[in-house]
Design goal:
Largest sheet: 3 strands, mixed
Structural class: mainly alpha
Strand content: 5-15%
Shape: globular
Length: 160
């Protein structure tokens, strides 16, 4: 994790907290990678895996705040838009391999779905901001403390 530019003193701590918060918020095993997305121009991507887990790629050149926001957005895809896949091909593509389908990206359904994902990520961040005081070991770093708070957020899943 030393190759990240997430603008902080301890990228390893941020990575560990991303994994923990991500698994808590989504109910799935999450692998977080500091690497560019396979989709050209994307700041992050989420890849469902055959075993029910997910791989989340976050561009290592992002500043800490943007990396956090993109991470929450990708988690929203894992939580709300997860579709099982037969192979891990997408997660194994090299960064920048795929060109975006601009017609799809500009479509109303796609934009509506992306809007829902950004709204979910904003709700998670608002909860984290309001509950940072609950963090047992505050770091003084706003993003790290919000990730810690998200690990305590009440989550309701079907069947619970």
């Amino acid at each position: 994790m030393n190759d990240t530019c997430w603008g902080m003193y301890d990228a390893r701590a941020m990575h560990a907290l991303m994994v923990q918060a991500g698994e808590h918020l989504t109910g799935r095993k999450i692998t977080v990678r500091a690497r560019p997305s396979c989709m050209k121009g994307a700041r992050g991507s989420a890849h469902p895996m055959p075993d029910g887990s997910a791989v989340v790629d976050i561009d290592p050149d992002l500043d800490q705040r943007t990396a956090y926001e993109v991470f929450l957005h990708e988690l929203a895809h894992v939580r709300l838009d997860y579709q099982a896949v037969p192979t891990a091909i997408m997660a194994n593509l090299a960064p920048g391999t795929l060109a975006p389908d601009m017609d799809k990206i500009k479509s109303k359904p796609y934009q509506a779905k992306e809007g829902r994902m950004w709204e979910q990520s904003r709700r998670w961040d608002q909860w984290a901001e309001a509950n940072q005081w609950r963090v047992i070991y505050p770091t003084g770093d706003v993003i790290l403390d919000r990730l810690q708070a998200l690990k305590m957020m009440p989550i309701y899943r079907k069947g619970e």
